[in-house]
Amino acid sequence: MIKHFIKYRLYLFILILIIIVISTIKIVNIKKSEGVEFVIGMSQANLTEPWRISMNKEIIAQAKQYKNIKIVYKDAGGDTNKQKKDINELVSVGVDLLIVSINDSKKLTPLVSEVYKTIPVIVLDRAVEGYDYSLYIGPDNENIGIQAGNLVVDLIGENQGKVIEVQGVLDSSPVIARSNGFKSVIKKHPNVKIFRTIVSEWQRDEAEDKITEVLKEDKDINVIFTHNDYMALGAYKAVYKLGLKNIKIIGVDGLTGENGGLDLVSKGILQGTFTCKTGGSEAINYAMEILNKKTDIPKKTILKSEKITMENVNEYLNNKFKKSVEKKDITIGYAQLTSESKWRDANSISIKTAAKNDGINLDFREYGYTQADQKKLIRDLIKKKVDVIAFSPFVKSGWDDVLMEAKNAGISVILSDRSVDSDDSLWNCNIGSDFIEEGRRAARLLLTRFKDKDVNIFELQGNMGSAPQIEREAGFKEVIKDYHNYKIVATETGNFSFENGKQVIKKFLKTRSKDINVVYAHNDDMALGAIEAIKEAGLVPGKDIVVIGIDGTREALLSIIKGEMYCTIECNPLLGPQLMKTASQIMMGEDVPVKIVNAEDIFTEFNSAKEVNNRLY
Ligand code: AHR
To answer: Is the N or the C terminus of the chain less surrounded, counting Cβ atoms within 10 Å?
Structure first.
């Protein structure tokens, strides 16, 4: 029996070795015969939708900018099993990097995670679950749905209105997100009703047939919203055939070319569309950065979607084909908050260093710790007429006025680190972290530590109303809500500072030291302050009270190594290089993502000792 097992293992090992050797020979032959340095595999979900055809065309065009690469294309024809086979074939040939435009997120997540263990993977358009990939590039589909809902409401006005929603593939991630965003707007307007929701698989002819049937049932429809322009063309054919001239149609994608969304809007066939960039050219550019071992590669880039109507379609087309201008001397004005943490110190140093390295003029203003202080700094920079203003918003709300002033002054705005709830027409790009995910990660680590024991939590929050405070709280609560033995028994802000965090916990422990066994701090400085308070109260951090932080500072890792802090979730402050790159792209007239999310890690007792000397802050 054992002999058979050993023989089987030996044969398997030899077979795997042969496959590796063959694929190495194949890839070496491709590289030699083509004279290239890198081979990139591109797995496409299907080529029956114009948007995906456009994606591949973009990839082909962008790849021509690089003489040392070859792209090997696979088309899954909408079949997830075929896409799995395609990906395995690309990997077995030995491609250096995989770009995959996903057909079914859930079913392909395990395979993408597996491939990511051996080669870099760029996920395009539909995300996979989790974070096992090098980079995700895609749209904000919920925002597209919200924008579409707002346009439908505008088109209907105060009258009573009936709407047909036409979806792509049922339950696909973009359909769910777009529909959620769309319905979140419609439900706020009682005069607008969604009469029918149709599923048409992203296809024009299917949309035409199904809409025809619904309109025969009830012609009294005001607006048809289709999740892509291809189905919008089908809607138009249905409406035209039935002679119904008063029905308005809006779509999504905004592709160029005949019968593309931009063409349909300029002909008045569509009342509007929302651009949904494919990310193809961005994928090739980032693939080259990854293959050339560049360091500051983001984890996610979310591409901006713009509303296109008859009013702006020509301006949009002119800008789209405008050549980027030569990089000229630019001045960035930065409105920084007075430092409250080691994180902020590192953030400022990163910005100043990157500006110096890139030869960019930086007017760095640092004053105060309130929104009013920050607005004063911004207005001074507007007066100075800098080219780009960047700042880390103290709080999430209340920025429309000063952002509109910057826009009216022709100054581009980059939100560095934190986001705002102002419309993204008032700013160009947000470079930062996924604070909600940071909160989720903190909660998941707590679940691992305590499992089904009773956990009573003191939540030590950042400055109230800031994006990290709001979103870290939301992410943490989203995870623990299903565990009734996890309770937040007290919440107070420590304003992200060591001293404030210490004083808050010190005061609490004077009377209620038995009421908590966990402190969840929204940053490491407050976590370390809490630890000092715990020790001064005669308690043992890590034993009597478990402390979790966020940021991943060197001091936090040292505390973890000492067994005092339990863990910290990285929030990367080193945004300088990405900020300078994005500002330069804006000044050269290039499109930039609406959101760039950093790659971030988790530090526990298992990896802090290995990582501590690598920490740059
Ligand atoms: O916006 C990021 C947060 O701001 C960091 O987590 C915190 O340390 C800083 O004050």
So the answer is: N
